[in-house]
Each structure stands twice: as C-alpha cells, then as structure tokens.
Amino acid sequence: MPMQIKKHTKEKGSIIRVEAEIPKETLGKKRASAINHLKEHVELKGFRKGHVPEKTLVEHVGEMTILEESAELAIEENYTKILDELSLSPIGHPKIIITKIAIGAPLEFTAEIPVMPEVKLPDYKKISAKFKDKKEEVVVEEKEIENVIAEVKKIQHHHAHKDHDHDHDHADHEHEETELTDDFVKTLGDFKDVADFKEKIKENILKEKTFKAEQKKRLEIIDAIRKETEIDIPEVLVDSEIKRMTNEFEHELSKVGSTLEKYLSEIKKT
Q1: CB 224 within 8 Å of CB 131
Q2: DSSP line for 58-126
Q3: Is the pTM of this model over 0.85?
C-alpha cells in the first residue's frame, strides 16, 4: 500500500503543512535497512563496528529504536512523493514531526515544508500614474555652472604646472588665475567660444539633474508599490539572510584583526 496524504494546509510564513500516513507493511519493509544502518553506527564491546549480530543488536538497542530508524527511512523515501503529488518546490528543509508510532501500526507524521512565498501586487499601474502626474521642474542655477568652470580651471591649472619641481616656482603659480577666454575653452574641446562652453555645461548639468530626478521618481514608485505589496516571508529566508549578513560582517571584522565575539564584547551586546 502506498503512503496516504490525509490533509494539507497553507500556514503562516509560506509553510505547507502536510499530514500523512505510511502503512505498517511499508514500515515493516524498512526493518532490514534500519538494522543495517544501526550496525554501522552502534559500537558494542567484543564486536568490530559493523559486525554486530542482528539478535545482539536488537537486544542492545531495543525494538523501539529499530522502529524509529525504520520510520526515518520510510519518511525520507516518501518525502519526494509528497512534493510530486502536491507539486511543491521547497526552499529549505522540512520540519518532520512523528505524531503516531507503534509496533504493528501505521506511521503518522506531519511535514512542514517552506515554499517560495506568494506575492500579491497592488494596482501598480494606478500607483505609478500618481507619480507620473507629478511634474518636477528641473532648473540649472548660474552658481552650478560657475562651480563647474571653477573646477575645470583648477584641473587645468594643476596640469599646467605639475612639472615644476621647485617650491618657489610652485608657490608663484598657486595664486595664478586661469582666465576664461575663447582661446582657453577651445583647448578643452569642441567649443566655439565662452558662451558655447557655458551652454554645453548647462546642457550636461540639466541632463544629469533630469536623470537623477527620474531615478528618484522611479524609486518612489517602487517604494510605494512595495508598501502595498502583500508577501508572507518564510522564516527560512529570514534565517538565511541573517546568516549571510553575519558571515559578511565577520569577514569584514577579520580584515581588521578582530572577531565577532570580541566586537560584541566591546559594545556589550549579544
């Protein structure tokens, strides 16, 4: 007789709880495998490991231990059948609880299986439309253009005098001001004159500010959608992320010659 799934329900934390029963005949067929498995691990005085006679082993560990070992093997074999029958894709190990076990009786157990959480999105198009209607004017201030020009002058001044080795020569040039002329801007690139140079700077600043404004709006839309999204995060994913963050932090501490234990001791926290 095959295993029977008696009931399955969806629990909080994206857990599928399955109640199942394995017939006593199926359980009985696992007895020989259970005894062989125990032989490999049980050590008895006067016998080499793995060579304990069956009768001696049974007398030593007891029938209940053999039954429990048989149950583990039977559940392990039937777990994949549960996944196939219910079309489940687990994201972690199941929590197995044996609810009924007795010699000469069927085995009953529950399996709590963590699965990928279902995501319920809100009306994201409606949310997005609210933000798209908000028009934000992007303006380039004269001060921003002047700041770029000042930075360009500073860079050009540094390049022009970097070959000076003597301190007094360097000091003399520190106070020189590069004049913004048509000839000067032509050395910087494809610029007709000072007015063209300033206009190109303004265009570049405008493009950058427009891009940043669009990115900001996109992030606001994503954040608004996230706040209204329903998702039941499995505990196994939370634990996995905590472990990843902890390992990453321990790695960073090791770079400075410290440990997590030492760090926690210093900040007086667990």
Answers
A1: yes
A2: HHHH-HHHHHHHHHHHHHHHHHHHHHHHHT--BSS--EEEEEE--TTS-EEEEEEEEBPPPEE---HHH
A3: no
**Tokens 């990453």 correspond to what residue?**
248
pLDDT tens for each residue of 88-118: 999 989 999 999 999 999 999 999 999 998 8
* Adjacent-strand bridge partners of 231: 119
In 3D space, the residue among 184, 212, 209, 210 whose CA is nearest the CA of residue 198 turns out to be 184
Copy the structure tokens of residue 232: 């039941």
Tokens found for residue 98: 């044996």
Count of residues making up the chain = 270
Tell me how crowded residue 110 is: count the other CB atoms within 10 A of its CB: 17
Do the beta carbons of residue 22 and residue 74 sit within 8 Å?
A: yes
d(CA 20, CA 8): 9
**Contact of 21 with 3, CB cutoff 8 Å:** yes
Q: What angle do CA 245, 250, 252 make, to 5 degrees?
A: 95
**Which regions of the chain are under pLDDT 70?**
160-177
Contacts 24+ apart (CB under 8 A), 28-36: 28/70, 30/70, 30/71, 30/73, 30/74, 30/77, 31/66, 31/70, 33/70, 33/73, 34/66, 34/67, 34/69, 34/70, 34/72, 34/73, 35/66, 35/69
Q: CA angle at residue 23 from 19 to 24, to 5 degrees?
A: 130
- Do residues 230 and 119 make contact, with C-beta atoms less than 8 angstroms apart? yes
Encode pLDDT of 21-59 as tens digits: 999 999 999 999 999 888 888 888 878 777 788 888 888
pLDDT of 171 reads 47
- Cα-flanking dihedrals φ and ψ of residue 72, to 5°? -60, -45
